[in-house]
Amino acid sequence: MALLATPCSTGLTVASPHDRTLDDDLELMSRIAEASATAACAEATEFEMSATIRHAISQADASRRVRLAVEVAASRDAVAMDALRMAVCEFTLALRRDGITPEGVLIRLKQLIDNETLPLIRSHPSDNDGHSLRERISTWSVKAYFDSEGACL
Amino acid sequence: MKKRNSKEHDALLEELTSVIAEKTEAAIAARMALRDAVCAFVAVEQARGMPISTVIATVKDILAKVQRGVGKVTDELAQQLIDWCVEFHLSRMPTGPAIIS
Predict the structure, then answer these.
(1) Taking the model in full, what pTM does it have?
(2) Does B78 touch chain A (CB under 8 A)?
């Protein structure tokens, strides 16, 4: 009789201590080995399940945290963009009061932005070399220039 | 064209120039931080097996939430965020770009 137990199988009955034979002992040893293997498999399965659950929890937690980070970053971005819009508006109105033409204002703005700060955004291809930000600044400026109320709201 | 050359006026323009430069830098930094956050979000959601369409929808939801809170986020920002998501997703695909629904 082979002593190899089937991995992760179940079932163990212990024979009565009376009228044991050699075959009975071998049978008992076989069953003990089988039970031992079953227990080890159960332990391993439990460990794997536990690891899977831990991993899922960890992923869900990471997802929650990065989602929160996106929310915070989006809020800050909106506030920063609005502050820039206000600055562009004030700049435009100051030049308008000075009699500078719309084209003249845009030229001054573009020189300022190109020379001083915009290259910073060029580290990501999707930013299109800051093209969209330049466009947005120009739009803000034109709107401010032709705003009849002349207030940066 | 009337032109004032007073020192006060020059100082005002100089100050406005300084402010606009400072605000541009701040806006760029905030936009980059947002980009990095979105890319991290894409990475985490991809690791969880989320399809890119779900990730994009979630980013839109987040923006909608921010819009309610601040009221100044534009469609352009939403599009840019989605572009970031898609671009980041494609760059991580081992077999190269595929159709994204």
Answers:
(1) 0.66
(2) no
Q: Give the Cα separation of A129 and A119 in Å (integer).
A: 7
Q: Could you read off the pLDDT of A58-93 as tens digits, one per residue?
A: 888 888 999 999 999 988 988 888 899 999 999 999
Q: Which residues contact A110 (CB under 8 A, 6 or more apart)?
A: A134, A138
Q: How far is A29 from chain B (nearest CA, A)?
A: 46
Give the minimum alpha-carbon distance from A42 to chain B in angstroms, rounded to a whole number: 27
Q: Give me the torsion for CA of A82, A84, A88, A94, rounded to 10°.
A: 90
- Judged by CB atoms closer than 8 Å, whether chains meet at A118 and B24 is answered as yes
Report ipTM for this prediction: 0.75
SS3 A37: helix
The answer to whether B65 contacts A79, with C-beta atoms less than 8 Å apart, is no
Q: Quick one: B92 exposed, middle or buried, by C-beta within 10 A (0-12, 13-18, 19+)?
A: exposed
Q: How far apart are CA A64 and CA A60, in angstroms?
A: 6
User: Distance between terminal CA atoms of chain B?
Assistant: 55
Q: Are A67 and B66 in contact (CB under 8 A)?
A: no
- How far is the C-alpha of A148 from the C-alpha of A89, rounded, in Å? 13
DSSP characters for chain B? ------HHHHHHHHHHHHHHHHHHHHHHHHHHHHHHHHHHHHHHHHHTT--HHHHHHHHHHHHHHHHHHHS---HHHHHHHHHHHHHHHHHH-TT------
CA-closest candidate to residue B84, choices A59, A120, A123: A123
